Automatic annotation (TrEMBL):
It comes from Paenibacillus algorifonticola. This is S-formylglutathione hydrolase FrmB. One of its GO terms (molecular function) is acyltransferase activity, transferring groups other than amino-acyl groups. The lineage of its organism: Bacteria, Bacillati, Bacillota, Bacilli, Bacillales. Keywords: Hydrolase. It comes from the Bacteria. Pfam families: Esterase.
């Protein structure tokens, strides 16, 4: 595998940002066997970070590079700060960046497949929310989405006194108001019906896991129940565990095993 730290200018954000990218490294024999003039494109997992992390966190705290090596899959890890993958009410357009600009930029720099069946998204905590948001908003782009300890009930979670928002105005800068969040497209519960109305072959597969001692466990149970009621294809796993990297390191391996890789 090869690891790239890529710094680039984002037109959606209006400033320079970064992403970490893992690419399979073919052997010399594999390169020689490919027909001249053909471009090989790798399947890709967009892997999203949590609230207090950045685009380097997954490579620093897990063995994602080693795990992806046996799968022949590229991994793109963008940085979005504390944005909750939103076009902020008062701030930058992180949703537009991650949903529209990032895939185009990443494919322009690296040999990544644009085929739906080769595109997947996963994340932890805030990134688990972002992964399901991408899968539900864009089922035409992603074959599967996975949430590890996801903050899936954002409206309830952001009002919880134990949530680690140190600035009292941070929520308002993100969403404006609780009412606006609950009624809008950033509330994952509002997206389930339209996704469930798609033909089964057009619905992404979903994977959800959470530790039973995690402070987001009850949120995950609520969303699991809503997913099951919608009829969307969901694989759910739980086990003893807290909101920490040891749990995510174990479970990202399960996500990679679960992905419907077509080659």
């Amino acid at each position: 595998m090869a690891l790239f730290q890529c710094d680039f200018f984002s037109e959606k954000l209006g400033f320079s940002t970064g992403m970490s990218v893992i690419l399979p490294q073919p052997s010399l024999a594999e390169v020689a066997s490919r027909k001249e003039g053909t471009d090989y494109k790798y399947p890709v997992l967009y892997l999203l970070h949590g609230l207090s992390d950045d685009h380097t966190a997954w490579t620093r705290y897990t063995s994602i590079e080693r795990y992806a090596s046996s799968k022949g899959i590229a991994v793109v890890m963008p940085g979005v700060h504390r944005s909750f993958y939103a076009d902020m009410e008062q701030g930058s357009r992180y949703w537009s960046f991650v949903s529209e600009e990032l895939p185009l930029v990443a494919r322009s720099f690296f040999p990544l497949s644009a085929r739906r069946e080769d595109n997947f998204v996963a994340g932890l905590s805030m990134g688990g929310y972002g992964a399901f948001k991408l899968g539900l908003h864009h089922p035409e782009r992603f074959a599967a989405a996975a949430s590890l300890s996801g903050a899936l009930d954002v409206a309830s979670r952001l009002q919880h006194p134990a949530f680690p928002y140190t600035d009292a105005g941070e929520f308002e800068r993100l969403y404006g108001s609780v009412e606006k969040l609950k009624a809008g497209p950033s509330n994952l519960f509002n997206l389930l019906t339209s996704a469930a109305e798609l033909p089964p072959e057009d619905q992404p597969r979903f994977y959800q896991c959470c530790g039973t001692e995690d402070h987001l466990y009850e949120d995950n149970l609520r969303f699991k129940a809503a997913m099951e009621e919608s009829g969307l294809p969901l694989t759910y796993d739980e086990e003893p565990g807290m909101h920490e990297w040891g749990y995510w390191d174990r479970n990202i391996q399960r996500v990679l095993d679960w992905l419907p890789l077509s080659r």
